[in-house]
Amino acid sequence: MAGSLSVRSLYHRFFVGTPALPRPLLRQLATLDHDQREAVVAVHDGQVIGLAQYVRAPDTRRAELAVLVVDAWQHRGVGRRMVSRLATLAARRGITSFDASVLPENQAALRAVARLWPGAAPRPDDDCLHYELPTFLLCR
Length: 140
Ligand SMILES: CC(C)(COP(=O)(O)OP(=O)(O)OC[C@H]1O[C@@H](n2cnc3c(N)ncnc32)[C@H](O)[C@@H]1OP(=O)(O)O)[C@@H](O)C(=O)NCCC(=O)NCCS
What we know:
The protein is α+β, with helices and mostly antiparallel strands and 140 residues long. The protein has helices at 7-14, 23-30, 78-92, 107-116, and strands spanning 37-44, 47-56, 62-69, 97-102, 123-125, 128-134. It has a six-stranded mixed sheet with strand order 1-2-3-4-6-5, with helices on both faces. The protein is globular, with a radius of gyration of 14 Å. It starts with 6 loop residues before the first helix and ends in a 6-residue tail after the last strand. Coenzyme A binds next to helix 1, strand 3, helix 3 and helix 4.
C-alpha cells in the first residue's frame, strides 16, 4: 500500500505532509484488539489497496474514523464498502457514532460522507470539518 499513495492522499488522511505511512499508524495496526481499535482492509491481487480504522474514545460509545484508499483505486467503491463493514462491526460492539475530521478542500471525502450519510452536517473544528456519524445507518 505504502508505495501507491500520493502525497496528496497522505495529506488528506494525516493532515500533515508526510512522504510515507507514519510509524504510529503501523504501531496502531500491530495492536488492534478488535474492540477498542479495529481495522478493515481491502485487498486486490495480494496487495492492500485500502484501510479503514476506528479507535474508540475511552469509556464512550464513540470512535474516531479514518479511511485511506490507494490512488489507483479511489472512486471505485472501496472506501464505501470498507466503511460500511467497519460501521457494522462497531455497532455490534456498542459504538453508536463515528467522529470524522475532513479537510475542507477534500471534496472526495466530503462527497463520500454525503453519499454514505445523506444529510450529515459538519461543524467547523480548527482547520477541519468535523462530523458525527451514526453507525447503525450503515449496519447490514
Ligand atoms: C476519501 C476516500 C477514503 C474515499 O474512498 P473511495 O474508495 O475513493 O470512495 P468510493 O469510491 O467508495 O466513493 C464513495 C462516494 O464518494 C464520492 N467520491 C469518491 N471519490 C470522489 C472523487 N474523487 N470525486 C468526487 N466524488 C467522489 C462519490 O459520491 C462516491 O459515491 P458514488 O461513486 O456512488 O457517487 C479516498 O478518496 C481516499 O482515500 N482519499 C485520501 C485519504 C482521505 O482523504 N481520507 C479521508 C479523511 S480520513
